[in-house]
Amino acid sequence: MSIIVCKFGGTSLANPERVLRAARRLVDYRQAGHEVVAVVSAMGKTTDDLVALAEAVSPKPPLREMDMLLATGEQQSMAVMAMAIQGLGQRAVSMTGRQAGIITTAAYSKAQIDQIKCERVTDALAKDEIVIVAGFQGVTRKGDITTLGRGGSDTTAVALAAALHADLCEIYSDVDGVYTADPRKVPRAHKLERLSYKEMLEIAAAGSGVLALRAVEFARRYQVPVSCRSAFNDNPGTIISAYKEDPMEQAVVSSVTYDNSEAKITIRDVPDNVGIAAQVFSAIAKVGANVDMIVQNVSEDGHTDMSFTTPIKELDLIEPVLKAQVKALGAREYGIDRDIAKISIIGAGMKANPGVAAKMFKVLADNGVNIGMISTSAIRVSVTVRSENIERALTSLHTAFGLDADEEYEETQLTAAELAAKAQKGR
Amino acid sequence: MSIIVCKFGGTSLANPERVLRAARRLVDYRQAGHEVVAVVSAMGKTTDDLVALAEAVSPKPPLREMDMLLATGEQQSMAVMAMAIQGLGQRAVSMTGRQAGIITTAAYSKAQIDQIKCERVTDALAKDEIVIVAGFQGVTRKGDITTLGRGGSDTTAVALAAALHADLCEIYSDVDGVYTADPRKVPRAHKLERLSYKEMLEIAAAGSGVLALRAVEFARRYQVPVSCRSAFNDNPGTIISAYKEDPMEQAVVSSVTYDNSEAKITIRDVPDNVGIAAQVFSAIAKVGANVDMIVQNVSEDGHTDMSFTTPIKELDLIEPVLKAQVKALGAREYGIDRDIAKISIIGAGMKANPGVAAKMFKVLADNGVNIGMISTSAIRVSVTVRSENIERALTSLHTAFGLDADEEYEETQLTAAELAAKAQKGR
């Protein structure tokens, strides 16, 4: 007997049929003798609807109330899931973040988990109940409801799995697992059987949406084995764990990713004085914006161009800072380029293989893809390219690093009608 | 400076414009120097949508989970209202039933308020905040979320007003107040300026939807002055308080009501033995069904017909009991008549005026309306009539008891467009 934590995303719960499908999976696990905890996101587009509602009454909704509002989405999901399970004849109980003991900081909209007091969860498991916990939410020590921000439900699941010493944390979504590249862009992409935490960290940071970066960090810190798999079929997913890479078997590069949600900002003709970069990026950090790749080249006349990327949706935050900094620094101007994408190759194998970056640049050049900025880590190389070159870059790198599958990827997600038909057949 | 509790029903919050309208009213009160607490229902048809969702995953949703689900409706309302108020520049904070200290029994779907620990509400009021409390919900001492059942939000408002020693509890809905009769049925109905708790109790019990019976009972017990008024205009509403009736000025009858939500059940040819009625109604009470008017006539041959009314939507609960009881009692059969309505006249003045019931029966007879069952209290006489006679009965009684207004009732509810226009003018 083991403890399994299963997390279902919004798409996996978008309608009653899908909720029932997920419920059946949980009941099967319980009947196979496992102790089962489910973490649920808000159903389908609920969160988007709630955000629109908030914006209809207030141009800038206060964060405490926004969290109060958004937390209802997961509360609905968990109640409906508990109903579905009980309808299938299995005991179940739902718990809000507060009831499950998820204590957070008071940073509304992006709270951090401080502690999990999971006695109530373990008590319920001991009473043969499947426990459904609202993802994405917690409560402050003063009793105020918070949300965890981006990737919050994944984080809830992994953190709960750590607190419960669970044997496995399964993250169900509408994709089969982690692929060597996005199969919608690279038809010969194939699913990876397993990844180390480090590789998954780089893949998540490089823009893959399969598993939130925060959740991977949590999993790595507490050594929680995570499986990313599809809610719509029974294919095995990708296992992320602390497995030791065997360089003999390990491909040099395990994944090629892209991210086109960032813009590139360039501040031109900055006088090259000491502490300039610190001044610019401190000012940006102060408004809470994220900065990714940073590149600076000093020219001969004592001036420099400074470039970095930042999420497009944080440009509103950053622009006032840029205006002020250009003036304060005596720089010429700043420019914003939204039309870029970050392409990354990731793989634990590249640590032992020098020349991987050089090969990447050559492949791109051979395929006519121009490179903008470059940044690297021990197991990742990222470059920016023009947006229109995303597919060419991905496909050529995927082939060059030996990742192509023999067959093309086929969409396996079932339609609602197929699901209903399958459900009628008695699963 | 005084404390005012304002309750807004679902229709008054059905869309963002209406939420903003209600928010402006609360801000006006605060700026006039009052301490303001708002109790909100779920927006528009939210609760109906949630019930439909539950029924889509489970034929008979468990009550604990149903309460968990339904409580999100009010939580959304309160968050959105707090956002709207803050958007208007006033401080505001929303509270769930739990946060507002509303402790209830664990009777899911129909919990009773046990205690209100309103320190957090008073603390917030002291910090110049308008406090928005989710209606209809509470929490058990063990931390489970409950709902209060029918009329729950009205009850939350009156109970909070009692706990806070508020000076006034305002119940906002889509009607102007309590009328002498339903103005959609009796065009010459007029609004009552004030009513005693006792009269309002009878009016609420006789089927008027303006204020929930439970809330009136609470108001009476704790002597909370209540005002029923419209969220869509600034007309004064009806004040319900402990005022002493002056028989010289008091009309004999203050209100004529109808209720067509009940069916009449008749058990025929019941042997007239001791304890029969007790047996039947104990069995019905056991399944949790409500019984209203009860009439029994003993015939000469030692058999009797026993009739009573019950909400049509509880017939499913009652029918199995009836079948068993007919058999157990040796009665002939039972019949159900859904096509009836209860007509009541209510007024504190009738205590001092004998012959009011007789006059009622004569007026109905003169107007060709046949009477079925009869039941009376000190300040109410109710009869059942055929459904098709509702309007004829109401209108003739309204005229005969001197309640007709000089002018016909005019609908004063604003459309969304009118509200928006008014809102744009700045109000």
Secondary-structure map:
Two copies of one chain form a homodimer.
Chain A: E1 3-8, H1 16-31, E2 35-40, H2 46-57, H3 63-87, E3 92-95, E4 102-104, E5 113-116, H4 119-126, E6 130-134, E7 137-139, E8 145-147, H5 152-163, E9 168-173, E10 194-196, H6 197-205, H7 213-222, E11 226-230, E12 238-241, E13 255-259, E14 262-271, H8 276-286, E15 294-298, E16 303-311, H9 315-329, E17 333-337, E18 340-346, H10 356-366, E19 374-377, E20 380-386, H11 390-400, H12 416-424
Parallel strand pairs in A: 1-2, 1-9, 2-6, 3-6, 9-11, 10-12
Antiparallel strand pairs in A: 4-5, 7-8, 11-12, 13-18, 14-16, 14-17, 15-16, 18-20, 19-20
Helix pairs in contact in A: 1-3, 2-3, 5-7, 6-7, 8-9
Give a verbal description of the structure.
The structure is a homodimer of 427-residue chains. With 427 residues, chain A is of the alpha/beta class. The first copy, chain A, has a domain at 3-244: 3-Layer(aba) Sandwich (Carbamate kinase), CATH 3.40.1160.10. Chain A is built from twelve helices and 20 strands. In chain A, helix 5 packs parallel to helix 7 (213-222). Chain A is globular, with a radius of gyration of 23 Å. The A-B interface holds A 16, 19-20, 23, 50, 53-54, 56-62, 64-66, 68-69, 71-73, 75-76, 78-80, 82-84, 86-87, 93-94, 96, 98-99, 143-145 and B 16, 19-20, 23, 50, 53-54, 56-62, 64-66, 68-69, 71-72, 75-76, 78-80, 82-84, 86-87, 93-94, 96, 98-99, 143-145.
